[in-house]
């Protein structure tokens, strides 16, 4: 943003509308800013300008020929006609040209439903077909490009988005053009598999047609059945903006959502696959209790009763009778409720979140593009909320000395990250009652006496604070599976039973309350976060240095 | 920058230079000056200054926005002013605007009224914005009897409170139902356990214990309460009439409907425009094709679509055949209720043959799903004319049989003459339309008054009788059967060639030979199935003369693939709302005769 | 003004009772007419049907109407006994006899096959998308033959949900699903009414039933069932 505002503004007229955009913008983006979408295949906001598809041709007054709007920088006083008859005719002719050899593949093509060819034909084409099926030039289909990508050379419109991506963003140069004329095609060298590119999944998203399809998603679902939710990837502290596409409680894919300040239009392959980690197998279906050494399924009522008794027991044991550990994987709102819960209900100062040392690596890049070394989404929020009151080693020591009678763990999976797993096991086994929220069934859970099934971030509304200190909202994609219940609700219930009170309510209410109370959040309001998130003033300098 | 940051947003909404595809929310809007010249607007400005806050011409309908506080006054002016004379309140329904994309900040709820002036032949729609928290407005039951059930439906579906309504209860949903289903925040898949039954008369037990009867003793007279229905040989479909009897005379009756309520309107909001055709089949299933056409016409009116002549001719022929079938069934079952079984077979046999004709066209007999936006799903078979002529040739014979058996039969006359009489002014107040209205001396038929599909070019009579009794309704239906045959003969004579559906791939599927052979048609086919026909945003009310009466569809579209709101003005609903008044003082045996003559089909009544 | 209003019952009798009087209807310009002569108000008190006063005495006994009715029924009885055509003998001895249904009949679906015997269906989900009853469940998978690429490993139609509207056939871009003349789908359990691929493509009844509703534009060789 700061970059954009520094440039002088230019005013031009597009289809009778006045547009004011920074110098250096192209006409296509300027038209978009006043609500006019110019059809295009090759242009992509986060790649260099190419101008190869010729779909975005527009008339510019004073020019004898049509100009590709994606390669045309704005000039003051320019008068552009996107909907002029010449431009429409050219667009129609160009679409017919692109479709000349296009196979009749809609029924088997994953792109159907979000295919630009389909959209543009119905909106701009509507010409009568002149190309008989038998005359089409055929190319190779179903080319296996390694473990992620399948290429169909016939469907390609040669927009070169993927080629530019591999050159400019991932740097792998994996995809290239081959041969000339009507047989031009993209591909890899000898159609070999693509290796060593951790961002190659993005070429599927940017492919405007169905030439590149993802093996992971291939044929599993049709895109028009999917419900989308605007979310944030929780796989590392980058906080890439994503769209979660799900149907009936099953996630089918993560797709990057454009946020120029965070991830541009990209996401790493590990983050893209992380939806698999967030759902079954292994998801906890309901609360569990340890009875006579083994775990038995229990009702929420029984589990809450047991937790209540365990907390009361721990309280009796004195100041160090209870300890609490929170995971930087949960939402900021849950952390905020957790802090109040630990302080007011559990009455302990043995609280920490720094189990695996990741809090020190929040801003350390894991590669040169997006990924960070911290595998948790919300370490920054933990720091802002001051959850590191005691050190985790002190807590484990106290556990080993059997001072701690009751240990409250928000997200037990997190404990596995500790550099000395044996020590954690030993410590946990010496605590009388371990109350654990968890999403998945892991071996360590056998040490817990009460297990609450927690909802993943896909199943609730909330925020994460990324490495820049950018507060980003994620929306619920589908309701919690089985009997899972977001931790905020569980802690509110327990507080009520124990005669205390913690903040309760929906995510937006909790966030506004927290932001008003915590200076680190700079008074941000939930509604200010929008879809792209916002940075409190204090954090903005930090973010800028990082970038 | 842009609110949705993804550059890969599916379905990029590119503005098209073709003005037909420009998104217009409320349809075509006429200039404000032209509207001010309209008498309705002029008179209201004078009589109720400030009451009308907006006036628009939406797809040809005059639409006024009226302040809720002034509704009663405005409605009274509309009804009584000599220049306006809107004597019929055709329809009342609700509209929840909370999910509209425009988000103009107006009130969330609108009560929508459709009025018709028979003397002037004009229609007007009133939009009454209601307060979001407590949607409340004056009831129009003091002006029109039709408001009674219609407002109960709006209360049931949207939770609107109508001040001064004598009996504001749920009508289509069960008493135990929680929430108001047509509100946009009501999830379509929510389920309720409905277990109890209630008596229509407050204070009475719902069911009588085995072998006993529910009765009250007044003086030395025992008044017995009986249930006719929900399941009774003489109720066509399920509904319940609880009646208090003094001997054999019905002193008072209360009618409950809704047993066959299948959330037609909520389902329509959840399905694409094309997918709704099978639902419309099941409204008045005796003449399913008429419903197909009534709905298709509504969407076509919003699209401003012109149909190929052949499609119109197919529609006219099959609609008139359906009218014959519908009347045949109505007459047949009406007589069966009175104990005359034989003619039932004479009515059903030609009906079977008409079904065979329809089956030859579309492959189904009862639930045809033959209509499509812009025409019909496929062309009629080559032998269509021969088949139709074959049916037409034999049909009069069977009408004559019924005639000979029934029309002059003294037993029949005794059972039907002066039975179920509703005088003309009450019929209009109840917004009766169709044959039952024509039996009260109003010679009114939409095919003649507001012709569509070239009905003005056909030579046919509009039957009329004056007594308003069951006998007259029977005679009118018999006459209409003969008139429909006349129309069909003329339509067959001028049966044109050409296409059976419009050649516009954004509202109709491309032909299969194209889909199989070129990518362009295949893509258009996919877009149509995935994202539905392209219907512009707008609001429209369209009406056809169904065999029962005025079948109206009120459609609000938001430019998406599904209707934002589709309300069906079922003629039978308004006709049946008069049943309690109609039965008062009648013999219990007259109930059966009267009920059948109203042509009630529960599928349409309960939707 | 209509003549109907002033007519006596006997005059009406002169014409056929149930033929609408010619030329009495309102014109398009008039839109409607009110015909006076009906009752001014609804009957009050106890009331029931009765004959009008202007029916002559000799017509009053119902024996005449009964006799006339008997003539009609007897005539029809004889016609039914010695039928000359379908109109005179509408019933059939089902299931030994069966009706000939239209070639467009919308009966139970069928999945068609390619000449090599594999299913034509490529699992494009068009039918499942347009189905208003949401009764089609498809699971797609990769087909070994790269020219086909995709095929359904599961294709179920819940016949209890299906409304036989034929929209799936309209929506199919491959002529892979058609309807047949087969309409007998009674079953002993709910599970049996969900038809999997095996029933949809190869049920034994298909051999004896004609194809029903299907697209009319078959290019090339005729439909392979």
What would your notes on this structure say?
The complex is a heterotrimer of chains A (547), B (607) and C (225). With 547 residues, chain A is α+β, with helices and mostly antiparallel strands. Chain A contains 17 helices and 22 strands. In chain A, 28% of the residues lie in helices and 17% in strands. In chain A, helix 13 (421-430) links the parallel strand 18 and strand 19. Chain B has 21 helices and 17 strands. Chain B has helices at 32-36, 39-47, 71-80, 147-158, 264-269, 277-281, 288-303, 309-337, 342-362, 384-407, 410-416, 424-429, 435-438, 446-449, 470-493, 512-517, 519-531, 571-576, 579-583, 588-597, 602-606; strands at 52-58, 61-66, 88-96, 109-117, 122-130, 136-138, 161-163, 214-218, 221-228, 240-246, 249-256, 371-372, 375-376, 442-444, 538-545, 550-557, 563-569. In chain B, a hairpin with a 2-residue loop joins strand 8 and strand 9 (221-228). In chain B, helix 8 (309-337) runs antiparallel to helix 15. In chain B, 56% of the residues are buried. Chain C has 225 residues and is an alpha+beta fold. Chain C has helices at 9-14, 63-81, 126-130, 167-171, 197-202; strands at residues 32-34, 109-111, 136-142, 150-158, 177-179, 194-195. Chain C is elongated, with a radius of gyration of 30 Å. The relative contact order of chain C is 0.12. At the B-C interface, helix 6, helix 9, helix 10, helix 11 and strand 14 of B face strand 1, helix 2, helix 3 and helix 4 of C.
């Amino acid at each position: 943003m700061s970059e954009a505002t520094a440039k002088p503004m230019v005013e031009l007229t597009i289809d009778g509308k006045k547009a004011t955009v920074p110098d250096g913008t192209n006409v296509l983006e300027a038209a978009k800013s006043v609500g006019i979408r110019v059809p295009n295949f090759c242009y992509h906001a986060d790649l260099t300008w190419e101008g190869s598809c010729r779909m975005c041709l527009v008339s510019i007054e004073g020019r004898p020929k049509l100009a590709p709007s994606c390669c045309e920088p704005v000039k003051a006083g320019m008068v552009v006609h996107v909907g002029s008859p010449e431009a429409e005719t050219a667009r129609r002719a160009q679409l017919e040209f692109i479709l000349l050899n296009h196979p009749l593949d809609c029924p088997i093509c994953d792109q159907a439903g979000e295919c630009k060819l389909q959209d543009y034909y119905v909106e701009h084409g509507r010409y009568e077909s002149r190309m008989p099926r038998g005359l089409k030039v055929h190319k190779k289909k179903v080319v296996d490009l390694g473990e992620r990508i399948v290429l169909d050379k016939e469907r390609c419109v040669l927009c070169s988005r993927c080629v530019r991506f591999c050159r400019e963003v991932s740097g792998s140069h994996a995809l290239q053009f081959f041969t000339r004329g009507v047989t031009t095609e993209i591909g890899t060298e000898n159609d070999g598999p693509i290796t060593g590119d951790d961002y190659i999944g993005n070429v599927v998203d940017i492919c405007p047609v169905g030439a590149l399809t993802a093996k992971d998603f291939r044929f599993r679902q049709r895109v028009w059945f999917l419900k989308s939710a605007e979310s944030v990837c929780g796989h590392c502290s980058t906080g890439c903006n994503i769209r979660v596409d799900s149907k009936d409680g099953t996630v089918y894919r993560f797709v990057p959502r454009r946020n120029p300040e965070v991830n541009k239009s990209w996401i790493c392959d590990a983050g893209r696959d992380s939806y698999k980690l967030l759902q079954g197998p292994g998801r906890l279906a309901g609360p569990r209790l340890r009875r006579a050494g083994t775990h038995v399924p229990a009702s929420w009522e029984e589990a809450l009763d047991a937790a209540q008794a365990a907390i009361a027991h721990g309280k009796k044991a004195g100041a160090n009778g209870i300890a609490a550990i929170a995971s930087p994987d949960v939402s900021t709102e849950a952390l905020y409720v957790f802090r109040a819960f630990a302080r007011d209900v559990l009455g302990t100062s043995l609280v920490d979140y720094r189990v695996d040392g990741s809090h020190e690596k929040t801003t350390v890049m894991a590669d040169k593009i997006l990924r960070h070394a911290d595998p948790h989404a919300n370490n920054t929020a933990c720091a802002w909320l001051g959850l590191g009151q005691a050190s985790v080693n002190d807590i484990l020591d106290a556990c080993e000395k059997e001072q701690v009678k009751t240990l409250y763990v928000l997200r037990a999976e997190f404990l596995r990250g500790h550099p000395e797993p044996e020590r954690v096991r030993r410590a946990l086994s010496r605590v009388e009652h371990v109350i654990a929220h968890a999403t998945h069934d892991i071996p360590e859970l056998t040490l817990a006496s009460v297990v609450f099934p927690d909802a993943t971030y896909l199943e609730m509304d909330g925020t994460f604070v990324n490495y820049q200190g950018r507060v980003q909202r994620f929306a619920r994609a589908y309701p919690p599976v089985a009997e899972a219940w977001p931790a905020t609700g569980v802690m509110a219930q327990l507080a009520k039973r124990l005669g205390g009170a913690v903040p309760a309510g929906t995510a937006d209410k909790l966030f506004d309350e927290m932001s008003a109370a915590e200076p680190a959040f700079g008074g941000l309001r939930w509604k200010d976060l929008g879809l792209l998130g916002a940075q409190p003033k204090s954090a903005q300098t930090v973010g800028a240095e990082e970038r | 920058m842009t609110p949705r940051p993804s550059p890969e947003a599916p379905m990029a909404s590119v503005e098209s230079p073709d003005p037909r595809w420009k998104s217009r929310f409320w349809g075509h809007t006429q200039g404000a000056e032209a509207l001010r010249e309209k008498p309705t607007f002029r008179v209201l400005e004078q009589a109720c200054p400030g009451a009308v806050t907006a006036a628009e011409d939406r797809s040809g309908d005059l639409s006024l926005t009226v302040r809720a506080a002034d509704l009663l006054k405005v409605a009274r002016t509309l009804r009584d002013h000599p220049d306006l004379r809107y004597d019929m309140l055709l329809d009342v329904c609700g509209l929840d605007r909370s999910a509209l994309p425009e988000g103009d900040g107006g009130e969330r709820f609108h009560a929508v009224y459709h009025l018709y002036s028979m003397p002037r032949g004009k229609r007007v729609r009133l939009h009454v914005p209601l307060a979001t928290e407590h949607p409340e407005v004056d009831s129009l039951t003091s002006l029109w009897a039709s408001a009674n059930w219609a407002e109960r439906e709006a209360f049931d579906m949207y939770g609107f409170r109508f001040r001064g309504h004598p009996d504001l209860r749920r009508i289509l949903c069960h008493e135990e139902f929680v929430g108001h289903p047509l509100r946009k925040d009501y999830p379509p898949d929510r389920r309720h356990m409905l277990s109890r039954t209630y008596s229509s008369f407050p204070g009475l037990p719902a069911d009588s214990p085995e072998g006993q009867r529910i009765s009250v003793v007044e003086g030395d007279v025992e008044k017995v309460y009986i249930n006719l229905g929900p399941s009774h040989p003489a109720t066509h479909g399920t509904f319940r009439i609880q009646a208090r009897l003094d001997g054999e005379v019905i002193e008072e009756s209360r009618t409950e409907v809704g047993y066959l309520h299948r959330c037609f309107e909520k389902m329509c909001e959840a399905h694409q425009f094309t997918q709704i055709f099978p639902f419309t089949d099941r409204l008045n299933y005796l003449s399913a094709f008429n419903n197909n056409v009534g709905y298709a016409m509504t969407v076509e009116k919003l699209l401003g679509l012109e149909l190929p002549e052949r499609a119109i001719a197919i529609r006219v022929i099959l609609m008139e055949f359906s009218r014959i079938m519908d009347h045949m069934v109505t007459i047949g079952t009406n007589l069966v209720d009175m104990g005359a079984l034989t003619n039932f077979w004479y009515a059903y046999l030609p009906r079977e043959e008409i079904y065979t004709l329809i089956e030859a066209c579309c492959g189904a007999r009862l639930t045809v799903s033959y209509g499509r936006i812009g025409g019909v799903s496929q062309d009629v078979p080559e032998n269509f004319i021969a088949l139709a002529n074959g049916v037409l040739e034999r049909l009069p014979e069977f009408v004559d049989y019924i005639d000979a058996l029934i029309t002059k039969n003294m037993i029949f006359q005794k059972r039907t003459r002066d039975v179920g009489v509703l005088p003309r002014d009450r019929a209009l107040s109840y917004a009766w339309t169709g044959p039952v209205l024509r039996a009260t001396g109003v010679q009114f038929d939409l095919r003649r008054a507001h012709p569509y599909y070239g009905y003005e070019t056909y030579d046919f009579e509009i039957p009329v009788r004056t007594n308003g009794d069951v006998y007259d309704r029977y005679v009118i239906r018999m006459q209409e059967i003969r008139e429909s045959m006349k129309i069909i003969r003329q339509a067959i004579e001028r049966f044109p060639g050409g296409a059976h559906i419009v050649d516009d791939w954004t509202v109709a599927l491309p032909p299969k030979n194209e889909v199989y052979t070129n990518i362009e048609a295949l893509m258009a086919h996919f877009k149509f199935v995935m994202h539905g026909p392209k219907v512009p945003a707008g609001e429209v009310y369209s009406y056809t003369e169904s065999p029962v009466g005025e079948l109206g569809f009120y459609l609000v579209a938001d430019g998406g693939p599904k209707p934002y709101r589709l309300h069906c003005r079922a003629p039978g609903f308004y006709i049946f709302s008069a049943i309690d008044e109609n039965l008062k003082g009648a013999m219990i045996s007259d109930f059966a005769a009267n009920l059948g003559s109203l042509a009630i089909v529960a599928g349409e009544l309960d939707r | 003004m209509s003549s109907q209003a002033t007519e006596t019952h006997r005059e009406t009798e002169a014409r056929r009772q149930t033929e609408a009087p010619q030329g009495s209807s309102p014109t398009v310009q008039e839109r409607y007419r009110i015909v006076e002569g009906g009752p001014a108000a609804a009957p009050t008190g106890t009331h029931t049907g009765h004959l009008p006063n202007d029916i002559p005495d000799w017509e009053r006994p119902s024996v005449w109407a009964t006799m006339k009715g008997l003539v009609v029924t007897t005539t029809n009885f004889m016609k039914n006994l010695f039928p000359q055509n379908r109109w005179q003998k509408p019933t059939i001895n089902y299931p030994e006899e069966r009706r000939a249904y239209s070639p467009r009949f919308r009966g139970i679906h069928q999945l068609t096959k390619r000449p090599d015997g594999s299913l034509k269906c490529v699992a494009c989900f068009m039918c499942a998308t347009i189905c208003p009853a949401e009764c089609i469940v498809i699971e797609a998978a990769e087909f070994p033959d790269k020219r086909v690429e995709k095929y359904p490993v599961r294709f179920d139609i819940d016949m209890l949900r299906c409304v036989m509207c034929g929209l799936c056939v309209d929506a199919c871009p491959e002529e892979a699903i058609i309807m047949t003349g087969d309409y007998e789908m009674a079953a002993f359990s709910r599970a049996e009414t969900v038809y999997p691929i095996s029933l949809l493509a190869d049920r034994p009844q298909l051999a004896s039933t004609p194809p029903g509703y299907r697209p009319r534009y078959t290019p090339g060789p005729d439909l392979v069932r």
